[in-house]
Amino acid sequence: MIELQNVSLRYGEREILDNVSLTIEDNKIKAVLGPSGVGKSTILKLILGLIKPNSGSILIDGTDITRLKESQLYPIRRKMGIVFQGNALFDSMTISENLGFFLRENLNLNEEETRRRVREQVEFAGLEGYEDALPENLSGGMKKRVAIGRALIFNPKMILFDEPTAGLDPVSSKKILSLIGELRKKNDLGAVLVTHIIDDVFMVADSVAVLYKGQIIFDDDTHKLHESDHPFIRSILSDKILEQ
Ligand SMILES: Nc1ncnc2c1ncn2[C@@H]1O[C@H](COP(=O)(O)OP(=O)(O)OP(=O)(O)O)[C@@H](O)[C@H]1O
Questions:
Q1: What's in the keyword line of the UniProt record (predicted)?
Q2: Which residue segment(s) compose the domain that 240 sits in?
């Protein structure tokens, strides 16, 4: 379980998160919905311990990571996989090499086990036949599927998605969202999905926190979003456009 407790974060003079509290349960999909620049990616960086808050605690399975040293963070990060907005694939490596890279770098597995895990992700992501292709020869949706496969390679408990459908066409977006839904069913995984696209939230998220002007203005089951009378939520439900 991931818990942000009274987290505040400033970049210079600018307050990005103001006393934000958020709980992300195992085996559930939690969306963090908000307009561009509101601090959604910042929340993911905080969860991974890449940045520290100015105040507040971040608990991962009960351990406050804000107090840990860099070396103590490795086993905590291993519990989570991340899918970056731009996928962060290595352009000069094939799909198989991309999938296996972190395994080969970080775990002392024999080559047979590494290949088995890579094959598992190739199958899960529907990338059979593309093992030897370079990322530049893949569509946006396929690259995203490689990034998801790579995030799963350490068998994490939780996967963090930064805007997983941004820039994808509607059909590819739907495929990616179904894959995210399947992850929980098949692998019992939890997920955090940060997005500014409200349709993504309705399609896969069990619950949603809405981040607006540094604060969480809604945090409940997704279907209860319709009951909110907050003007910002009313406006996004009617326009489906998130602007500051
Ligand atoms: N290292 C940094 N130093 C200063 N400002 C930063 C830094 N990183 C992010 N910001 C600013 O903090 C705000 C929140 O950034 P963040 O990337 O978390 O937003 P976001 O909600 O994920 O939006 P987007 O989806 O557009 O990336 C933005 O205004 C951004 O410009």
A1: ATP-binding, Nucleotide-binding, Transport
A2: 1-79+192-244
Pocket residues for ligand 1 (CB within 6 Å)? Answer: 11, 16, 34, 36-42, 163
Q: Characterize the bridge pairing of strands 215-221 and 14-24.
A: unpaired
CATH number for the domain harbouring residue 30: 3.40.50.300
Residue 64 lies in a domain: yes
- What's the gap in Å between 5 CA and the centre of ligand 1? 20
Question: Nearest residue CA, atom 23 of ligand 1?
Answer: 37
| pLDDT tier for residue 244 given thresholds of 50, 70 and 90 | very low
Structural domain contains residue 109: no
Average pLDDT of the residues in 150-175: 92
Ligand 1 atom index nearest CA of 42: 18
Query: In this structure, what DSSP letter does residue 141 have?
Result: H
* Nearest Cα residue to atom 26 of ligand 1: 36
- ipTM for this prediction: 0.93
Q: How far, in Å, from the CA of 18 to the mean position of ligand 1?
A: 14
Helix, strand or coil, per DSSP, at residue 242? coil
Can you tell me the mean pLDDT for 190-196? 94
Which uninterrupted H or E stretch holds 155? none
Residue 140 lies in a domain: no
| Residues 98, 148: Cα–Cα separation, whole Å | 11
Is the separation of the CB atoms in 105 and 114 below 8 Å? no
171 in any annotated domain: no
- Check whether 61 has a pLDDT greater than 80: yes
Structurally, the chain folds into a number of domains equal to 1
Percentage of residues of the chain with pLDDT beyond 70: 98
Q: In angstroms, what is the span from residue 219 Cα to ligand 1's centroid? A: 21
